[in-house]
Amino acid sequence: MKTKLFILSLLFVLCFNCKKTEKITIVETANTAENYLKPNTEDQFLGGIKMIPITTPKGEFKVWTKRVGNNPTMKVLLLHGGPGMTHEIYECFDGYFPQENIEYYYYDQLGSYYSDQPKDLSLWDLDRFVEEVEQVRVALGLNKDNFYLYGQSWGGILGMQYALKYQDNLKGLIISNMVASIPDYQKYSDQVLAPKLDPEVLKEIMSYEDKEDYTNQRYLDLIVENYYTKHVIRMPVKDWPEPINRGFKHLNPDVYVTMQGPSEFGIKGNATLKNWDVKDRLKEIKTPTLTIGATHDTMDPEHMKWISTEVQNGRFLLCPNGSHLSQFDDQKVFFKGLISFIKDVDSGAF
């Protein structure tokens, strides 16, 4: 149970302008069995799975991807959180994207469970991950005419950083449940969320924080039961969806602790992301951008709304009943807004 809760607790850082006939043709083509997975490729044998070679400063490795669906103009690459989490927390997308004819790609970043997991800690570097995403994009044949990049939590950091360097390759960007500044995130956690806890619970949590006793079972129980069920996924732990539990079980703590740090109440210690901040650079992003926030998130929803006004072409979606994993605890609002954005950009209505 201790191991399970430790892994669980690591989460937080953790065509209206188209011609009518053209649009109908795309929809009908995407719906045919022959085109759902492209014939005459390895997809026929691997169900859309592709291991992509990645070149790094420490050699070549392979990362796992899986394509679902086929649409020439709407292709979404999913960047999971963590760092060191897996694609499994997005399996609920299967209930929404296929029926909307949206092609999407599950992807385990280097170090995550289904991909290679080298032990060299120097690989867990933001800029290197950006180059990895670019290599994945090229290998999957994604481009400015079809490529939507979705990033949640740590994936949102990676998505923003990618857009600041490679936005000319993007058709659309989605930043989900992530602010543009780790110091601002820490401030919100300390000054807004922490005081909402029962004073005695907060006092006990901070006693473990002060001692840096981050793996203590009591500390983990307090965090999960009093903080995560309010701000990460608003469900009792016993009701958490199976893909979440499976994803947490597969989390790589080496990646997580290196970049996020050992604390479950913020980003502390020598975490490499501790001082990350791109607030002053958001105005450089011209790609159509959707930011998704939730009322009960670990991240400040007002900050995420602000991001949508800083980028050149932004839209904000609020999940009023959601938290950090609003794809689960405010699912209908989340997917309605996400799908509308993708289709509005695709049709030219955005």
Automatic annotation (TrEMBL):
One of its GO terms (molecular function) is hydrolase activity. Pfam families: Abhydrolase_1. Residues 76-330 form the AB hydrolase-1 domain. PANTHER family: HYDROLASE, PUTATIVE (AFU_ORTHOLOGUE AFUA_2G14860)-RELATED, MONOACYLGLYCEROL LIPASE. This is Proline iminopeptidase-family hydrolase. SUPFAM superfamilies: alpha/beta-Hydrolases (SSF53474). It comes from the Bacteria. Transmembrane segments: none annotated. Keywords: Hydrolase. InterPro entries: AB_hydrolase_1, AB_hydrolase_fold, AB_hydrolase_sf, Peptidase_S33, Pro_imino_pep. Belongs to the peptidase S33 family. Gene3D superfamilies: alpha/beta hydrolase.
